[in-house]
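Retro notes (design track)

What went well: tokenization of the new backbones is finally stable.
What didn't: we kept losing track of which sequence belonged to which structure.
Fix going forward: every design gets posted as structure first, then sequence, in one message. First example under the new rule, 158 residues:
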């Protein structure tokens, strides 16, 4: 196989060889016609995994996080919070709340959620069936917090 690594091209756009397909979200990688992912900076072939009847490879996205890319889709997805108004909760800095009452966890996300922000589920507790969510403080202690209290704290004028 012919090397395509170009020396002396630092801080310039990497050139993708003819017939290769770029990976959206991971600009330093491309897929060759023989279905292997290559790192365009180093010129090395990336290991290919067979998973769920598809070829997949582990790459670094443009933000420096490790992601698995499917060779049929050729995109690395990054999930972010929707473009809305949010207020960070004072006692629980890992959480944001919207004016309509959706509580999002956006920091210190676990492996379970693959570092993607998510909406915290709520339950109704007690005889009066008030709505509660489970939130954790910075030191890791978990509390059941009433939604009314969260909304009063976040949006006192409403």
């Amino acid at each position: 196989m012919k090397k395509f690594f170009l020396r002396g091209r630092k801080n310039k756009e990497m050139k993708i060889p003819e017939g290769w397909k770029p990976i959206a979200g991971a600009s330093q990688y491309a897929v060759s016609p023989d279905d292997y992912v290559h790192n365009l900076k180093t010129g090395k072939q990336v290991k290919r995994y067979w998973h769920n009847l598809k070829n997949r490879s582990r790459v670094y996205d443009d933000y420096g996080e490790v992601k698995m890319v499917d060779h049929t889709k050729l995109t690395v997805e990054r999930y972010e919070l929707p473009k809305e108004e949010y207020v960070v909760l004072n006692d629980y800095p890992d959480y944001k709340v919207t004016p309509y009452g959706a509580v999002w966890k956006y920091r210190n996300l676990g492996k379970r959620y693959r570092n993607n922000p998510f909406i915290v589920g709520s339950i109704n507790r007690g005889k009066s069936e008030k709505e509660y969510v489970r939130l954790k403080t910075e030191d890791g202690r978990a509390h059941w917090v009433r939604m009314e209290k969260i909304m009063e704290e976040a949006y006192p004028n409403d």
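Added context from the reviewer: The first helix runs from residue 147 to 154.
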